[in-house]
Write a structure and sequence with these properties.
about 400 residues; Rossmann fold; 2 domains; seven-stranded mixed β-sheet; five-stranded parallel β-sheet; 12 helices
């Protein structure tokens, strides 16, 4: 009797899961993001955005009537963990594609496994140039390679601001060191002289002595490499001391967050910042996505969230165009992608040493009357920049 019940139950399962049964099987997409470890905060923004996009896609009928199912795995910002997670997604979960990838070292390892198993991997965030320089036919990248990050800033400095010198204020340690490397690339391209280089310890509350020394040298450009709390204190205390360079530049993602406006308030006015995406960018659905995210989570998303949301738009589009919703079918249609997303246009191409790379531009933003506007490149500006700054 028990065997008969089991057989009948298995027969029922096969009937409801078989083609034409009226209950469509879900298409599985893997997501590899850090939900623990040092990048967990950014991973959380991405996870929320992946799920928001999933909700919209499935609410609109899915892919030919079949829903999408996301299987989200934590990379923990560790190469060994990320590799195991990718292996699980491919071999056990049988996903048709994987999206995500934050840390470049983790992503590079995961990408080698995806290529080995011939499963498309759409890299959303990891930026090391080599990821799309290996000629791997199953590896696609949505975001900007790190070598191209500073192009809009360099262009703005050379064509508009033209500062002769710079003073940099940076957090001591690996975080600040990474920002210094980026500034070095800008200086090398533009010839701007370094006249001050001041380090501070994380958690510093009083920057006035440091800022007095900076004011004495009067650099035309002040470049700040800091996290949220220290950046807000630097700006507010600089305003108190009357420190007014030709331009302030926030060199980290903290300066693009609405929380920075809450902390720095008027001291943030006219500060510039570099980002891979801004809600004010003229991309279809970008502002709507940001507003919807803010209504749900009480804060605006950063570029990590936009990358995740756009990745789902791209994969859904590829699946709709695929003759067979298989890894091979998705790879073929991904290569032919030509669409607009909340993150901007997506068209994978080959240039320089890269293959299947989306040529996405970074953006220069400026805080103007309490809003972070896109001001450069001109073709993507939401409003004109304010420069020279008013007295």
């Amino acid at each position: 009797m028990k065997r008969m019940v089991i057989c009948l139950f298995l027969g029922f399962l096969l009937s409801v899961l078989s083609p034409g049964s009226g209950l469509a099987q879900a298409l599985r997409i893997g997501v590899l993001i850090p939900l623990s470890g040092k990048l967990a905060g950014f991973g959380e923004v991405s996870q929320k955005s992946f799920l928001m996009a999933l909700e919209k896609i499935n609410g609109s009928g899915g892919i030919g009537g079949r829903p999408l199912d996301l299987i989200i795995e934590d990379s923990a910002s560790q190469a060994s963990v990320g590799r195991k997670a990718m292996e699980k997604l491919i071999t056990r979960d049988k996903v048709v594609a994987v999206a995500g990838g934050f840390s470049s070292s983790v992503t590079f390892e995961a990408a080698s496994l995806a290529q080995q198993h011939r499963v498309p991997f759409l890299v959303t965030t990891a930026s090391a140039d080599k990821i799309t320089e290996m000629g791997r036919e199953y590896i696609f990248r949505l975001t900007t390679p790190v070598s191209e990050y500073e192009r809009p800033l360099i262009s703005f400095l050379e064509r508009v601001a033209k500062p002769e010198n710079v003073g940099v204020i940076y957090e001591r340690g690996p975080f600040g060191a990474f920002g210094l490397k980026r500034l070095y690339k800008v200086r090398k391209k533009t010839g701007i002289r370094l006249v001050r280089k001041d380090a501070f310890e994380p958690g510093t509350l009083d920057f006035r002595p440091l800022l007095e020394d900076v004011k004495a040298r009067n650099p035309e450009l002040i470049y700040i490499i800091s996290r949220m709390e220290e950046g807000a204190l630097l700006l507010t205390q600089a305003a108190e001391l009357g420190l007014k360079p030709k331009l302030f530049l926030g060199g980290t993602a903290a300066f693009t967050r609405l929380e920075m406006l809450d902390r720095a308030q008027l001291a943030l006015e006219h500060v510039f910042c570099l980002s891979l995406w801004l809600p004010s960018a003229p991309y279809p659905g970008a502002r709507h996505y940001a507003v919807k995210y803010a209504a749900r989570y009480d804060t605006y998303p950063d570029y990590h969230g936009a990358q995740a949301y756009a990745a789902m738009e791209v994969l859904a589009d590829a699946l709709k165009r695929a003759a067979i919703p298989s890894p091979q079918g998705v790879r073929e249609t991904l290569a032919q992608t030509d669409m607009d997303t909340v993150f901007g246009p997506v068209r994978f191409s080959a240039y320089e040493d890269k293959t299947r790379q989306n040529p996405h531009p970074a953006l220069l933003g400026q805080w103007i009357e309490g809003d972070l506007e896109t001001v450069w490149p001109r073709a993507l500006a939401s409003c004109p920049f304010v420069f020279p700054l008013p007295d």
